[in-house]
Specification:
Length: 126
């Protein structure tokens, strides 16, 4: 099979020559989703505030409704989940930052999956 839509055709004949034909199409997607872009709001924190992570992803089939992420601010790490906000592949995650945590918010990794079981964790080294 090739990636994308693949036609299937089944033909059956009986002993007296009757023929039955069934035609179907199957979508084959062997690839994991792709990370397009991400951003935090705010990009830096003074502590005791809420941060928002927006992630844009694409896939040939439908992306799963949630995606796991890890954010880091200095030595503080936050692991959470984002929810897909639309069918176009935008995820939104909200999290609260403790009062004593200050600095730039960085994305450490994000795991994206589609409904066919293709999954990829993107390790961000910025």
């Amino acid at each position: 099979m090739n990636p994308g839509i693949n036609p299937l055709r089944f033909t059956a004949r009986d002993l007296v020559g009757n023929i039955a034909v069934i035609e179907k199409q199957v979508f084959f997607d062997p690839d994991a989703p792709r990370l397009v872009k991400y951003q935090f709001s705010p990009k830096r924190t003074k502590g005791a505030e809420q941060a928002t992570l927006s992630v844009r992803a694409t896939d040939a089939t439908m992306l799963r409704k949630t995606a796991h992420f890890i954010a880091q601010i200095g030595e503080f790490r936050y692991a959470g989940y984002m929810t897909r906000s639309d069918a176009k592949g935008e995820y939104i995650g909200l999290f609260y930052i403790p009062q004593n945590v200050k600095g730039a918010i960085k994305l450490k990794d994000v795991t994206l999956s589609d409904y066919l079981g293709n999954t990829k964790t993107f390790d961000i080294r910025r």
